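Running this now, will post back.
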Amino acid sequence: CNLADGAGRTPLHLAVLVGSCHSVQLLLDAGADATAVCSSTGLSCTEMAIESGIPEMISIMTKYLQRIGFG
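Update: finished.
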C-alpha cells in the first residue's frame, strides 16, 4: 500500500487529498507509511494532512505517529 503513482503519490497521499478520514485510517492500519514524501509536492502524508485543516484527519495522523513512537 506504499506504491506511488506517476506523480509520486501513494494511496495514503490520495486519501488525504480527497479528505477521506476513513480511508486514511484503513490505510494506516494496513501499514501505509505516513512519512512517505510525494515526489511532485515534496510533502509527506502527515504534512498534507496538517495542511488539509481537517481536525479528524490531523487527529488520526497524530495518534498514528504517537503509536509508532514518531514525535
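The CA atoms of residues 8 and 41 lie 8 Å apart. More later if anyone needs it.
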